[in-house]
Write a sequence for this structure.
């Protein structure tokens, strides 16, 4: 049963929590300002994913992507609202804010959404609980001009977990009952009560323009923490804020790590997958890529500046035969600054034994190098290490430009392969405004680990567990772990979802759970000349022993590489 004192605390202090969250997130529950050019004139909704759950950002058409009755959703485009953001701040909440309003038409019924936040490039709104369910259309009107309609699917429930990055992935917005935020420096422990914050549990019996009632909403919810189902003590509105939901769980035994996945299944739909920091004992978790000393420094109230440079190569056979192989060489680097208030952005990979899933239509916004490698700190404050860093090896030198992070595809249709196994590569920079000059060299590893029992062009059911076995590899690499990744996209990649798992190398096998695969779209097909290949891929590799280097302005930096073996397959 729910602990009454805690629910009163959650209800009474939620506004304080939201105010604090605005400081730590790129967006907040009600406010997310997207940096885009301001466009005057008729409102125009963007062509890709114009309307999404404000927490999960799930791609329309995928399971769990509908806009639930009584939930908060986000609209993206240009000319949607005033040039300066405005926010609703008192009850009753308005349907007109800053000359912006939103209409949702279902059959012959048009409903006015409650507008919580309006800006030129984004509106956050609340869908009234009495909106009819089904397929319909949505328009935005600003200053008397109305956008063209876009499709919208209204459901009875589609839950999303808010995250630090405000993009649907990474560290979950989760708190202790006393409102301490869960991060790598404030870990949950088995048996603790944890509060997940999100939206989309379903409608209420009342007017969403006013403070909502507290109490469990109809329907059961299932919360997975790692691979364990947690006990749910409460699932309903926050009591303070319309559309804002809380799920109170008891952290199950047997799970730990800085990046343990958490997901919510309500009805037949799985939410986005976020992560929690969990430790058996102590205040901090213990498997952060940054190193325990830097985690403890952050926990002591100091800032941490950390660099992460990696080279990644994928070799994957096409399915069309003839020995044709796809290749991808990637260089990526981030130089990130963390404070105790932004510790939730220090997200690298997924803890051992678990998987995460990320929506990434057309590859946009993926926190990986080219969608193949380690999840990285895409939400952190990036430090200037110069206009470009250089990667040099095998007689070639390439400049990797920087714009909030350094990234380059080193292999394409017109350039030969850049990365080769067993050779030295150097990364260097003359320095920038925050980080001084540096140079570091490492010798690349090999594609030593490969799948043992999966074939190219194979069909893989999305409704069943997938057990993968491997051969080769090295127990001394990646702390005795392997990285497994995969993605599936439709024909034009407007639906494109990938997953990443970390598994113990010595186990020689790992099972990707069916709930992970269920979040992927069925694989389409692509064409390269006369070769048809699947828009589903799966790969495995290990990261090399990282070279540690320092530079003026950094506490530490790591330079590593990985060579992935992969196959084209069809997720069905």
């Amino acid at each position: 049963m729910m602990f009454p004192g805690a629910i009163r605390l959650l209800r009474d202090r939620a506004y304080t929590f939201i105010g604090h969250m605005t400081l730590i997130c790129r967006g907040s529950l009600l406010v997310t300002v997207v940096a885009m050019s301001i466009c005057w004139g008729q409102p125009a909704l963007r062509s890709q994913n114009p309307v999404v759950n404000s927490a999960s950002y799930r791609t329309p058409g995928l399971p769990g992507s509908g806009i639930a009755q009584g939930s908060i959703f986000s609209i993206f485009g240009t000319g949607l609202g005033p040039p300066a953001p405005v926010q609703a701040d008192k009850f009753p909440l308005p349907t007109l804010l800053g000359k912006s309003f939103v209409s949702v038409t279902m059959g012959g019924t048009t409903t006015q959404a409650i507008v919580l936040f309006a800006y030129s490039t984004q509106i956050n709104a609340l869908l009234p609980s009495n909106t009819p369910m089904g397929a319909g259309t949505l328009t935005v009107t600003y200053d008397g001009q109305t956008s063209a309609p876009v499709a919208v699917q209204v459901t009875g429930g589609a839950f999303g977990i808010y995250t630090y990055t405000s993009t649907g992935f990474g560290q979950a917005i989760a708190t202790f009952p006393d409102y301490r935020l869960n991060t790598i420096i404030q870990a949950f422990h088995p048996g603790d009560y944890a509060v997940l914050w999100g939206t989309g549990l379903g409608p209420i019996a009342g007017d969403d323009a006013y403070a909502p009632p507290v109490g469990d909403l109809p329907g059961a919810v299932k919360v997975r923490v790692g691979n364990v189902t947690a006990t749910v003590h409460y699932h309903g509105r926050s009591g303070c804020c319309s559309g804002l939901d809380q799920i109170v769980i008891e952290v199950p035994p047997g799970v730990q790590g800085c990046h343990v996945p958490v997901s919510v299944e309500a009805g037949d739909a799985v939410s986005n997958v976020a992560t929690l920091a969990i430790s058996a004992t102590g205040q901090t978790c213990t498997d952060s890529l940054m190193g325990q000393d830097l985690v403890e420094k952050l926990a002591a109230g100091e800032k941490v500046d950390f660099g992460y440079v990696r080279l990644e190569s994928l070799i994957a056979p096409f399915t069309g035969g003839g020995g044709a192989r796809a290749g991808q060489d990637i260089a990526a680097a981030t130089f990130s600054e963390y404070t105790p208030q932004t510790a939730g952005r220090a997200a690298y990979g997924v803890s051992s034994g678990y998987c995460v899933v990320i929506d990434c239509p057309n590859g946009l916004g993926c926190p990986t190098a080219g969608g193949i490698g380690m999840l990285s700190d895409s939400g952190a404050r990036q430090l200037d290490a110069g206009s470009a860093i250089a990667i040099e090896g095998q007689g070639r030198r390439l400049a990797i430009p920087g714009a909030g992070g350094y990234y380059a595809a080193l292999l394409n249709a017109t350039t030969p392969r850049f990365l080769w196994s067993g050779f030295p590569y150097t990364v260097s920079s003359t320095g920038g405004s925050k980080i001084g000059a540096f140079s570091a060299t490492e010798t690349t590893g090999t594609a030593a680990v490969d799948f043992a029992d999966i074939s190219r062009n194979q069909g893989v059911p999305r409704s069943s567990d997938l057990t993968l076995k491997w051969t080769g590899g090295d127990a001394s690499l990646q702390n005795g772990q392997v990285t497994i990744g995969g993605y599936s996209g439709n024909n034009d990649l407007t639906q494109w979802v990938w997953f990443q798992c970390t598994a113990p190398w010595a186990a020689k096998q790992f099972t990707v759970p069916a709930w992970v695969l269920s979040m992927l779209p069925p694989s389409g097909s692509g064409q390269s000349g006369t070769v048809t290949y699947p828009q589903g891929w799966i790969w495995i590799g290990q990261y090399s022993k990282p070279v540690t280097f320092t530079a003026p302005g950094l506490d530490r930096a790591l330079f590593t590489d990985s060579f992935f073996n992969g196959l084209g397959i069809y997720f069905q």
Remarks:
- The radius of gyration is 23 Å.
